[in-house]
């Protein structure tokens, strides 16, 4: 690995951030983590229903809050402001993409997925397309999504932890690396105990903490610095003329094609993320699935509408702060590490009380832990339920299933920790790679599987393999050079038209076409499968624990490969 291909640990330290132990913020964060562990213990898993789908007992408001917390990861709480700070107008593609996806979920997928009524996203793929191979591919994809997505969360937790606990490097590790290990260890311990039931209860609490911290920070920073009076979400426009051209010129930092590709990938990726779709399996019925999507979108917008304002305040404070304006002027401005914790350092640069900055930082940790919980539960369920139970040991007891699931959480934790020690990109970019994967591989299967009953096993397998191939090509071309090479893409033209951050713009249409063509050219699915699809759109009510397969009574058995 060449020197240029390594992100040195000094580059991971935010510019101007006070990296020292702070008693009040530390007590605040440790108390918050203790509450999460207590809730996880009280609502610890008793069986597989609680482990994977929270007993299908979650109501509208609670699930909406869980959707908000599950969704607003470090990439939203920290990374959204970072992306806009580093790239200006281009960063708005993330606001638009991550929001629009929920409208598609609301209209086309939420109620239908709930009526199908399984445990996991790979469960849907395997049963809808009558294929263990398709289930296996979907399970591996779900695990890979959880891993790639969680790297950004670990990075965010560690950077925020540096502000609160200082440089506590040990065993030859830097403060950042040590913080990655500490934070991920706490997260894994809490998840192996709680399962989906405890995680969902925690997500409601985590949402209150993260949205309260974010909005409080945004309003107080705006008020104290004279940037806003009542509505910082609107009033930040007065600062645009004082910031760089990238904030006022739409495509100063990225081409229109990259903006569209990124936005599209985030839209379809939202609709293909297993940890998002599993929220529809945890509710009582399809009506609750729809309304909790609306509720969740409202809770999400509270943060998303404020992110550009927070960015404007933070960038302006960074520009005028003596420590950063003079020391780092020769280095080309704000670093990625600083941008990734801009929400925290903005409050610090505004000279707000240390405990208040700690409260804002605690919100970032809560956001990262909440999303990591959803990711790890989804990834571990892919290992335990979809691979171990359905493909290896169909007679597994509930005790064995939960044990394998917990081992899956530990495995994800270890892999994520190792990758986060030397991350390849800022938080937002890391997360976006997972969206491109979900959009290219899983979204076409969910959409066609729910809305076209003639989609068959052969079409699904061909489509998923095509999607995986299209996703891996830009990942190898752009991300691998960060570790093996000089950091530049191997093929520049390919990076321009098939960017890793937006590869689904090419991948999704190709996968749809391949899936449809192969399905038309091969045998139609069984009548039972078609009836299951029709049941997903039936107006007839279903029982809380019923699935579409339970309602179909023709007696047919799903085929196998």
Automatic annotation (TrEMBL):
Chain positions covered by the region annotation Disordered: 535-561
Keywords linked to the UniProt accession: Membrane, Transmembrane, Transmembrane helix, Transport
Principal subcellular localization: membrane
Pfam family, any one: SSF
Subcellular locations according to the entry: Membrane
Membrane-spanning ranges: 23-43, 64-86, 92-111, 137-164, 170-192, 204-222, 257-281, 293-313, 355-383, 403-421, 427-452, 459-477, 497-522
Bilayer topology annotation: Multi-pass membrane protein
UniProt superkingdom: Archaea
GO cellular component, one term: membrane
Entry's family note: Belongs to the sodium:solute symporter (SSF) (TC 2.A.21) family.
PANTHER family: NA(+):SOLUTE SYMPORTER (SSF FAMILY), SODIUM/PROLINE SYMPORTER-RELATED
Name under which the protein is recorded: Cation acetate symporter
Source organism per UniProt: Haloarchaeobius amylolyticus
């Amino acid at each position: 690995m060449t020197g240029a291909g390594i992100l040195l640990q000094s580059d991971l330290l935010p510019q101007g951030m006070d990296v020292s132990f702070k008693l009040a913020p530390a007590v605040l964060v440790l108390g918050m983590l203790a509450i999460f562990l207590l809730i996880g213990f009280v609502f610890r898993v008793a069986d597989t229903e609680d482990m994977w789908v929270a007993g299908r007992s979650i109501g509208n408001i609670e699930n909406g809050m869980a959707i908000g917390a599950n969704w607003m990861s470090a990439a939203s709480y920290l990374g959204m402001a970072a992306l806009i700070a580093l790239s200006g107008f281009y960063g708005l593609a993330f606001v638009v993409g991550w929001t629009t996806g929920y409208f598609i979920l609301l209209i086309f997928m939420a109620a239908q997925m709930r009526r199908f009524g399984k445990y996991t996203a790979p469960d849907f793929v395997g049963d809808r397309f009558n294929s263990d191979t398709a289930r296996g591919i979907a399970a591996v994809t779900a695990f890979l999504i959880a891993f790639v997505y969680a790297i950004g969360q670990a990075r965010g937790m560690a950077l925020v932890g540096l502000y609160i606990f200082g440089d506590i490097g040990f065993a030859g590790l830097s403060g950042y690396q040590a913080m990655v290990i500490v934070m991920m260890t706490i997260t894994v311990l809490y998840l192996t105990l709680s399962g989906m039931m405890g995680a969902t209860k925690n997500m409601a609490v985590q949402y209150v903490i993260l949205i309260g911290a974010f909005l409080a920070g945004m309003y107080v920073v705006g008020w104290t610095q004279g940037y806003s009076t009542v509505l910082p979400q609107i009033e930040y426009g007065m600062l645009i003329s004082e910031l760089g051209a990238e904030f006022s010129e739409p495509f100063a930092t990225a081409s229109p094609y990259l903006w569209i590709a990124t936005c599209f990938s985030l839209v379809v990726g939202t609709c293909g993320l297993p940890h998002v779709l599993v929220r529809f399996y945890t509710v009582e019925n399809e009506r609750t699935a729809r309304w909790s999507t609306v509720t969740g979108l409202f809770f999400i917008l509270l943060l998303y509408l404020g992110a550009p304002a927070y960015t404007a305040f933070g960038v302006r404070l960074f520009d005028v702060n003596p420590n950063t304006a003079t020391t780092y002027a020769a280095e080309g401005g704000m670093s990625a590490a600083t941008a990734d914790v801009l929400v925290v350092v903005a409050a610090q640069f505004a000279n707000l009380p240390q405990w208040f900055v700690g409260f804002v930082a605690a919100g970032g940790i809560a956001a990262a832990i909440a999303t990591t919980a959803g990711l790890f539960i989804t990834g571990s369920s892919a290992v335990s339920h979809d691979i171990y139970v359905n493909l290896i040991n169909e007679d597994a007891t509930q005790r064995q299933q939960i044990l394998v699931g917990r081992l899956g959480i530990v495995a994800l934790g270890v892999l994520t920790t190792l990758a986060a020690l030397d991350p390849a990109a800022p938080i937002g970019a890391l997360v976006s790679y997972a969206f491109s994967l979900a959009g290219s591989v899983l979204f076409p299967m969910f959409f066609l599987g729910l809305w076209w009953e003639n989609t068959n096993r052969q079409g699904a397998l061909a489509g998923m393999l095509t999607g995986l191939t299209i996703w891996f090509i830009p990942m190898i071309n752009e991300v691998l050079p960060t570790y093996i090479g000089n950091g530049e893409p191997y093929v520049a033209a390919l990076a321009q038209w098939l960017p890793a951050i937006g590869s689904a713009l090419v991948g999704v249409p190709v996968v749809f076409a391949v899936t449809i063509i192969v399905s038309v050219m091969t045998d139609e699915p069984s009548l039972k499968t078609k009836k299951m699809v029709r049941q997903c759109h039936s107006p007839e009510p279903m029982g809380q624990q019923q699935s579409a397969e339970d309602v179909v009574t023709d007696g047919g058995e799903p085929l196998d490969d």
